[in-house]
Amino acid sequence: MKDALHAGWYLIAFTDELTQDLTPLRLGDRRLMIARTDDQQGYGLFDATCPHRGANLAFGGELKDNCVVCPFHGRRVMLGESDKPLSVRGYPTRVFGPLVFARLTDQAEGEATFSESFPEILGDRTITPAITTEFTVPISYVVENAFDIEHFTPVHDVPRVGDMEAKLHDEGFLQIGGSFTTVEQPWIDMRMAVALQQFLGDTRAKSAQTQSGFRATAFSPTLVATSFGSTGKDPVIITAAIPTETGCQVRVSVAAFPGDPVEHIVNGSKLAMKQDGEIWNNLDPDAPTQMDERDANIIAYHSFCEEFPKVGDAAAAAPRLLQAANDA
Predict the structure, then answer these.
(1) Cα separations (Å) of 96 from 85, 104, 129, 188, 242?
(2) Contact criterion met (CB below 8 Å) for 10 and 280
(3) What InterPro entries does this protein's entry cite (predicted)?
(4) 206: helix, coil or strand?
(5) 3-class secondary-structure state, position 149
């Protein structure tokens, strides 16, 4: 079961992964490349298929000015829309700290202004990349996870979860919020979950007293920002996924205020992802499902996803050189 590509934002890379001028990327059946650019963003996303004879420009191509020298025939291919026959399409790209985002279409009218709303949620926090991993499930399970409040107790050992309702924001993103009842702050709970289960059983869980706030904001079917805690300066966890041949690749990063320790949050995120992964990698995504009113927030998330236009999986570059020759 492959994910259909959508028109929303994807987190396509951490900047520390981009060690070359050209980095190949696959989104579904699309052959793309991330190129270093001289503009304010510093990186751009482009089609990678050479319009001359179909070579992948990201493998052996050389970036020169605003062109890529094709590794097959040495022809210069312009980056971005151009009236020249040898050119490849560029896509909207945004860079926030170490995170590189892109989308496969222009901004849709009425859609949330990602460039404004995402920084607003982060505030003055500093972003730290934490996890890059893969799972054998469709992307939907990853972002849906933030809206599946029923799973927090059996999977993550959260003693009690308050009532929460997902709502569509006026700017187009989906948001859910409420509170957990935990023993201490939630990241401490996650870090200690294994030890508590092994040595204390349910004793400490039953004595939980701390109310910890929770909020999740989905900007697209593959991108969600989640915060835990009740201080107003709590960390924000950014979880995003892109499709692979066997499932999805997931990137998680932590946004915290300068000077705040993030190691225990990163470790808590890794533990939570491991707990989820044990479920995801062993479920059958094609099995029939029976949802009811307790799944209202999951249903709301999937309804949110359906509002995003789908983008065709195959996007082979048009043979513009041959077309120009035919038109001559």
Answers:
(1) 33, 18, 12, 28, 18
(2) no
(3) Cholesterol_7-desaturase (IPR050584), KshA-like_C (IPR045605), Rieske_2Fe-2S (IPR017941), Rieske_2Fe-2S_sf (IPR036922)
(4) helix
(5) helix
What pLDDT is attached to residue 48? 98
DSSP summary character for residue 196: I
Show the low-confidence residues of the chain (pLDDT under 50): 110, 188-206, 313-328
Rounded-to-integer distance, Cα 94 and Cα 102, Å: 6
Q: Domains, the chain, ranges and CATH?
A: 5-106 (2.102.10.10), 114-310 (3.90.380.10)
Beta-bridged to residue 102, according to DSSP, are: 10, 93
Give the DSSP letter of residue 115: H
E strand residue ranges, 154-307:
160-161, 167-168, 174-182, 210-220, 223-228, 236-243, 248-256
Question: What is the H or E stretch that residue 15 is in?
Answer: none
Q: What φ, ψ does residue 148 adopt, rounded to 5°?
A: -90, 75
Query: What does each C-alpha distance from 289 to 64, 142, 283, 286, 299 come to in angstroms?
Result: 52, 17, 12, 9, 12
SS3 77: strand
Q: pTM to 2 decimals? A: 0.85
